[in-house]
Design goal:
The complex is a heterodimer. By secondary structure, chain A is mainly alpha-helical. Chain A folds into two domains: 70 residues, no CATH class; 176 residues, no CATH class. Chain A contains twelve helices and no strands. Chain B contains five helices and three strands; from the N terminus they run H-H-E-H-H-E-E-H. Chain B starts with a helix and ends with a helix. Classes of the chains: A mainly alpha, B alpha+beta. Chains A and B meet through helix 2 and helix 4 of A and helix 4 and strand 3 of B.
Chain lengths: 257, 111
Amino acid sequence: MTRLDRIASRVVLLAKLPGNKLRSEIAKELRAHLEDLTEEARSYGYDEQASAWMVNRRFGEPQEIASAFASVYAPERLAKRLAQAALLVIASTVAVVVVIGTVQSIAAICTATSILSTFRDIHWELFGFGAITAGYCSLYAGERLFPTSLARAVLPSVTLGLWLSAIFVWLIPQHAALPLAAFTCAALGRLLQRVEIPLVWFAGTALPLLIAWALFGRLISGWQFPWLVWLGLTICCKVLREVVQFLERFVFSESFA
Amino acid sequence: MPFDRELLKGSIALLILKLLSERDMYGYEIIQESLRRSQEAFEFKEGTLYPALHQLHKRGYLRSEWRTGENGKQRKYYALTAAGRKAARASEKEWFFFTKMVNAILSKANP
């Protein structure tokens, strides 16, 4: 990579432009411009060092150009981020439904009960599915928004948690405890997945459940197997981590390049 | 004579549209042409020109294409669209009205 390539790439990188095509197009355009500036400097008889100085002076600060480009493409960047967020939420919800459904079905088979009977409270469970997704994804969003500050990274989860508490208590006062515990489990699970010690995040899914159990007692009709609820939430956190990693690698990769 | 750069920033879209209404140009050429015509007074900075070109392109006032020059170099040329021509005329008209009013006020203030 030449010096001119580096300048053009720096602008494009700092501008956080949406899409590889746009990025390479602008880099190519700026590169052509820098070549013209270099030729002009040489035509004045400047040597390599002097022409590099002149090009830098005429071109200006890459950061300044990048922020001007960033504001031009801000709506496209926002639309792309929203589409990615929607994809993450949909993929995560599907994963949660599949995991919990599978765990419940296996439990029903093992206890020789009807699979259909385990899903009789499915309408309440839907709140739980949404809460798990919201808990995990809100913490992930916080990590992306504030990569350098843990205190700030948890802010979206805390805010969303408070809103969900109010909504659940208002909408489903008798059944609010489990989805809220599930939300906390998922968020705490994600938080502890950052810890280097293997499997410590298992505690993240267990602790809120134990607290909820101590405070409210039975949370659901199938509470005779509390470990099953913990197992479902733990597997959910594991699967959600895989979902996030997959999307980061294959779908979101160009945004974070 | 030195002047406030913000004045140039505010009129950059008009200047680009006007220059491109005469012929297709690429970024560096627009800078050179504006320097020549303004007797070196107006020097667009790249941080102003290229984002402005892309903004006008997004609005549908410009179209662009890569062309290979005589020296084999590829450059991105910008040209006005029909909407761009209309916008250029409107902006020019607006500018003349504006400067006329400013001049009218200034001339009253300094009889």
